Automatic annotation (TrEMBL):
Superkingdom, taxonomy of origin: Bacteria
Full protein name: DUF488 domain-containing protein
A Pfam family per the record: DUF488
Amino acid sequence: MALLSIFDGQLTAKQFQKYLFLFTREQTIKSFDFIPYRYGCFSFQANQDIATLTKYGYCGIVETDNGKFYKLLNDDNYIDTIKLEDRKSLLEIKEQFGKLSQSDLIRYTYRQYPYYAIKSTIAKELLNKKELNTIEQQKPHYAHKQLFTIGYEGISLETYINKLIINDVNVLCDVRKNAYSQKYGFSKQTLELACKGADIEYIHIPSLGIVSAKRQDLQTQADYDYLFQEYRETTLIENKDSLLTIRNLLDEGKRVALTCFEKDPKQCHRTCVANALMQLPATDYKLQCL
């Protein structure tokens, strides 16, 4: 809200994301995380926050022929509600970048932070060959197939997606029974959208999940170990076809990540799935926990 306020109550969606990104570069503990996306640096959480503020009448989203705009619906001196150092940073950003056109603003972020331009669909329109080559060098390229596991507990959607991008993951296999989470970004629809924007295929494999009723009252590692022993003896055996679906992706040379909630691999069944894949015949890929 303070960002919109300091820019006279209105910004395009692209300007909002870029100014917010530049603002967070000045913060020791960043308010928002970002990923490389269609137009460069993008925060799903900030985008969701704008939608929530719109729902409650604090700002409006206006669609025009020139794109999407965010507009404050009232002026309650939001700039005075934030910390002094943040207020100073916003004022400096307006002073330094406020007169740039939207294209020049985007171009600046691409030049200064090329990693965030690696998924851009408009970079060729804005940059010269040397600058495009710099962006190309930021893209991770691994020739060998690999299996990964990753949990989303305790991290933002953007941090999670960046881990996948940096490790050149091609396919994310969601092995939750129900692809729903109270944590923003990790329900199926949003997670699939974020993956698509990062050129990562999303596949939900509920047959390899564990019903939530069995996950209640897990207090010790011994409780998890008992649950996973049962899982290996039942679900993994009964759903070998699902396991082979993942193996086929690896055989195609894909870099595949298995995902569920828990941060600790020892307390998540994705590790059981990964170990089962590693025990299949003629395994020519390695396993890494992200």
